[in-house]
């Protein structure tokens, strides 16, 4: 065996190095003295298992012993004398046993190691205990060398999801997992450009289907992005609904095999997929044992179909259909068939199956169910029958689109050709039932194949084909029941082929390659199943050949087939004849006894030509497609034992012939890939979580050949690489240039430089062979070196790019500055012209509006005064006339009588005049208040002017300080700035409008009434001019600073320009101060004019009041 190989990164590495290593010679000496006891001890104590020396040789305190029920228990040795030992095991029980029956136990530090290769003693109880230890802690995955062992937990465990996918993708987790296998496959595919395959095997109920879905989930997550990965995952509900069923051992047993080939693009993204199926169990459609169910699709359709579909298909409950009545089990605990139906419909939508085709598919399912309800009645004394035209027959004819009479004839008669004559033969009850069931099985089988074809069309790769793919094989496991029929015969034959592939990859090819390359290697014995495969495939006397031959004979029966087997192949050690129609085959996983009842009928799988013609005459598309497919298969020429005359029925390929052809194609495809094996283990038959049956697990481990794999991997070199490829991949790691050396010398130099120990590799004639974990170390070194090289390259390239970018930016900035300057100067000239025009237009418009408003107010005032004065004059004139007339009368006559009406009129007029006087006084008070408001507003304007002067002075001081700083920072440069003219023009032009405005205001000062809004307008214009000029001087100063510091290139002298800018600033400042004073004078004058107007009003009202008093 050699030394135990322990990965340096393993937590058990240090302890494992301290363990006592046992050589192969020591094992042989120890095993020679073993006295085997117990049912399983003899096999496991044989030399081929290794590490099973007697207790006396191992001298350990902890040992395993086998109890009476066959289970292994851990015991502590109390005393040992000679060939007997006293042990203490569970609950303090003490027992005296033979020392030779004890097997050594591993130290506690190795409890629960994730790889069986790390066990010091690789014996039966140690392996079982290690797997159980991990299983009890929900660690369901373990490694057995290159093989992943997955134990079905029968419950949900938190080991999946995006977090775990990210962890395994980033290598932050390295514990055994399906994700790790899928990650290895995709990385090797991209690295080596070789197609990969993941072979998942195990018994029914071991979790193969779920494991395949988990692997697909990881591949979809890593290779996703195009959207097709969603469609690939959605194929699972469809295939499970139409291809899975509940059996006595598994609630979701796959009754077919499938190979999913996922294609990848050159960048590692999924570009498409293709699904291939094998050997659908058609007999389950018409036969169902108690406690089992038919295919899930029937129950899902009956439970979840919407009312419209139920009415269209005339669906009833599952209890109404005879095909489903054969078992009382119609539901599965924890599964809602109605919800599953909706999931299947969503999946069909995802793979682009149209609603019309979905309804047609469901119609075919309903037709199969109604076919089971078709009954027959005897019509004559010869027991000939014909179908009863009832609801079932009418529904079948409606669903498949044929006439009820045509269906009746196809189920009760058979047309035969004798020479040139056509003979119609009536069928007996048994023949009619077989015809009906054959039609139902054929419709369902064709429907299943049609669905797979539709899925493949949706997932087709097309033009994106690159040749890179990962195939996931989920195929039925080895089966052995109380009664084993034709289906188990084919399934176990397929498993024999897969086991040979497993053996060839891990045992035969491994050892042959070691021998061819001259590697120092101790050959390991293992069980080969070549004899069993010869039993099935040998010509002309193999099981498959004899079955096909007997199927062609019209008088052949299951009994004659069994007798023929006993006659011709009893010499094969893997075959044993039994009484009656049974025979036994010694498979790699154990002996299985087959009952040949139904073998010939199931192998022929005959659907009579009348039934095919019935389907071709249907109006529905699917039955026509089914018939066309079957006719095309029957027209193919057949060579060999099935090539007989007798029409299309006899020309059809037998089931085992088609299956054998599919199996050989599958093996050829797998041989062209790098395989990765996952062995699924079922811990108990009750499908209950937390239960671990040692005997059941041990049987499956034997079937899988797990321990042989561990032993070869422990003592072998699982990783190999050609000299050329190794030198090409790792040659750059050498410190010295080795381009002229041969690949072998380069490879040896690399190994020495990387400190790979000599016992960790061997050099062959054409390849280098490494023990487990060594390539990983080289890959880590390569990755670190490449990362360093990439970092240096990135830094250098970044430096070059940054230098180029800086130069490019500098040129762009210069060009942009000239372009933007020219553009800004042009835009500024246009804006300046527009501003001048706008100011001129505003001046004339505002003057016209002011004049119009003044004229309107003045005219209205004059009219109002005229009316009031006239009214007053007329009133005064009337009173004086009356008084003069009264005096004349008094003078003429001493006694003058005045009428009371005149007195009343006079009193009324006096009161009215007094009321008018009061109104005028109130108006006078209102005008007086307005005058006070105007005076207050004027004082506010004066305060604002003072504050503006303070702000202006502060800004002037800050501007002067900025100019002085800029002057100091400038140096002598012989360049002139072209924008001086625009600045001088701006200064001279903008000064004139201000003066014109001031003169305009002074020219209008002769008017009596001046609105306060004019003052506000003048002040606002001065403030705007101050802000604009401050901004212009500030921008020019900043520009000169940038030119002096070298940030901007310009053809001007910064010192000269600074002096000119200062002169311009002083001129503008002086002009602005003058205009500000003039504006203040104008505003004061406006205030005085308003005061004079108010005083005039007061005088006028005073005269008016005086006249009234008079």
UniProtKB/TrEMBL annotation:
Membrane found in the keyword field: no
A Pfam family annotated for this UniProt entry: SH3_VIII-1_N
**Keyword line:** Actin-binding, ATP-binding, Calmodulin-binding, Coiled coil, Motor protein, Myosin, Nucleotide-binding, Repeat
* Extent of Polar residues compositional bias: 980-991
Q: Which residues form a coiled coil?
A: 903-937
* Any single Gene Ontology cellular-component annotation: cytoplasm
Disordered: region residues = 974-1009
Instruction: Extract the ranges annotated as region (Actin-binding).
Output: 663-685
- Domain of life, per UniProt, equals Eukaryota
User: What is one GO biological process annotated to this record?
Assistant: actin filament organization
Record domain Myosin motor: where: 111-783
The entry's ATP-binding residues are 202-209
Instruction: Write one Gene Ontology MF term.
Output: ATP binding
Query: Can you tell me which family this protein belongs to?
Result: Belongs to the TRAFAC class myosin-kinesin ATPase superfamily. Myosin family. Plant myosin class VIII subfamily.
Write down what this protein is called.
Myosin motor domain-containing protein
Q: Which organism is it from?
A: Tagetes erecta (African marigold)
